[in-house]
Design brief:
The chain is α/β, with parallel strands linked by helices and 330 residues long. It is 44% helix and 8% strand.
Length: 330
């Protein structure tokens, strides 16, 4: 029955060296077998709630999948939810379900994404974007392990593990009264911070080669050849979109120039990574803002096209545009 707890996901799952290595792939290379990897592996083996923090595109979703795969619930469902992509008007119904007739158009019962993850893991990406009503329902889920679908007479017991991720400062959101403090306390049992790509230079070549092989196989092509100057340019770039942006670049190169060596000129032709300007160091917000404005101009002002270039949701692009502009602009 929907309201009864299941036993699945409770038996320990043997860990493997391969799984541990995969968890360690995210984070500074020198930390793979130390603090970062050990924290992730300990968290994976439990069923505790985990909060994954880090900038957009650093690999929080990949880490969440690996945490689930290595957990006792690894054979049960992993259900990812982008909280920033669901309209506020339907998010309660999408997450927690609804009963037939609960509102106009509810022609049948809807189980909801929480109960779809029964026995497994619910991954709440961009959890800081949840509206107030959904935050309240999520708090009840974390406290009581219950959900009450919209229009349902009684709450239902569920057995899910929550992994949440955010690129926002949730403490700041609490201070701005945009996020519940009690919910933050419930989510923040174990916090794992994923560093940005610019702080993971030792991993950049390995990621570049991994994506190169991935898209060569996808498009049935030879792998691309990056000349040393192009690799140096890629290393010099600050990657405001992080791993997701790097992956998008490699795919674009495979599509637009599959049979040509990747040079600095070729990078410029596909709209990537102008040489860093000399002068005083700029903040990430300034670099990102300038890059978004440049790509907007190259794409006729299309936010959807810019989001595709950076490999992020359109709402993220709007948020970046609302951030701090370069100091030399009014």
């Amino acid at each position: 029955m929907a309201g009864e707890k299941r036993e699945r996901g409770t038996a320990p799952k043997p860990s493997t060296a391969t799984g541990s290595a995969r968890i360690g792939e995210i984070g500074r290379a020198e930390e793979r077998s130390s603090a970062f990897g050990q924290l992730a592996q300990r968290a994976a083996r439990s069923s505790c709630t985990i909060l994954v923090t880090g900038e957009t595109g650093v690999g929080k979703g990949h880490l969440a999948k690996e945490l689930h795969r290595e957990s006792p619930r690894g054979d049960a469902p992993f259900v990812p939810v982008n909280c920033g992509a669901i309209p506020e008007s339907i998010i309660d119904s999408q997450l927690f379900g609804h009963a037939q007739g609960a509102f106009s158009g509810a022609t049948k019962d809807h189980v909801g994404l929480v109960r779809a993850a029964e026995g497994g893991t619910l991954f709440l990406d961009e959890v800081g974007e949840l509206p107030a009503s959904a935050q309240t329902r999520l708090l009840r889920l974390l406290q009581d392990r219950e959900v009450q679908p919209v229009g349902h007479a009684r709450p239902l017991t569920v057995d899910v593990r929550i992994i949440a991720a955010t690129n926002r400062d949730l403490r700041e959101a609490v201070e701005q009264r945009a996020f519940r403090e009690d919910l933050l306390f419930r989510l923040d049992v174990v916090r794992i911070h994923v560093p940005p790509l610019r702080e993971r230079a030792a991993e950049l070549d390995a990621l570049l080669d991994q994506f190169n092989r991935e898209f060569a196989e996808l498009y049935r092509q030879q792998t691309l050849e990056f000349d040393p100057a192009a690799r140096e340019r890629i290393h010099a770039y600050r990657w405001p979109g992080n791993i997701r942006q790097l992956r998008t670049l490699v795919e674009r190169l495979h599509v637009l120039c599959p049979d040509e060596p990747v040079t600095i000129d070729r990078l410029a032709e596909v709209g990537h990574a102008a040489e860093p300007a000399p002068g005083a160091a700029r903040s990430l917000d300034e670099v990102r803002y300038e890059e978004v404005i440049r790509v907007l101009g190259d794409n006729g002002g299309s936010v959807a096209a810019v989001a595709a270039v950076f490999g992020v949701h359109r709402s993220t692009i709007y948020r970046w545009l609302q951030g701090r502009r370069p100091t030399n602009q009014p």
